[in-house]
Amino acid sequence: MTKRLMAIAGIAVLIVGATVFALGHGLQGQGHGKGERRHGPGPEMVDHMAKALGLTADQTTQIKAIFESVRAGEEARHAKLDELHQQLEAATANGQFDETKVREIANQQAQLMSDQMVEHMRMKSKAYSLLTPEQRTKADEMHKGGGPYRKHGPPPRSE
Question: How far apart are CA 80 and CA 9, in angstroms?
Fold first, then answer.
C-alpha cells in the first residue's frame, strides 16, 4: 500500500510540477494563440512522461485523453481565479482594506485551489492506473529523487 501511495505521489509530482512550470512561464504566444494561456498539463508533458517511463503508444494516447478531459475545467477555474485576483486588487487599492471582503475573496480562491488539487489527484490516479508494475516502480524511483525535473530538467517547450 505504501509503495502504491508513493507511486501515486510520483505521478502527482509530474502533473503538478508540469502545471506549475507551465503557469510560471505563462505559455503566452507560444503556438496557443496570441495572449491565450493553456492550463493544465499539455501534450509536451505527456511526451516527457512517455519518454521517462517508457509508455506505449496506447498508454500515451490514454494519458493525453485524461489530461485533455480536465482542460476545460482548468481553464474555467483559472479564469475565475484571475477574476478573484482582480477583485482582491480592487478591494485593496489605494490602501483600503475591508477584512470581510478580503476574507470572502480569499475563501473563494481557496475553494478553487482545493478543487484544482482534487482534480489533479484524480487525474494522477487515472494515469497511474494505466502504468505497468515496472513503470510504477520507475515512477516511484523518480519521486524518491525529487521527480524528473531535478534529474532531467523540465519538459521541453514546444514553440
Answer: 27
Q: How many helices (H) and strands (E) does the chain have?
A: 6, 0
- Count Cβ atoms below 10 Å from residue 128 Cβ, excluding itself: 20
pTM of the model: 0.63
- In order of 7, 93, 118, 129, 132, the CA distances from 39 in angstroms are 24, 28, 16, 23, 28
Confidence of residue 156 (pLDDT cuts 50, 70, 90): low
From residue 110, give the alpha-carbon distance in Å to each of 21, 39, 137: 20, 18, 34
Query: In terms of residue numbers, what domain contains 44?
Result: 2-28+37-152
Judge whether 146 lies within some domain: yes
In this structure, what C-alpha cell is assigned to residue 70?
480536465
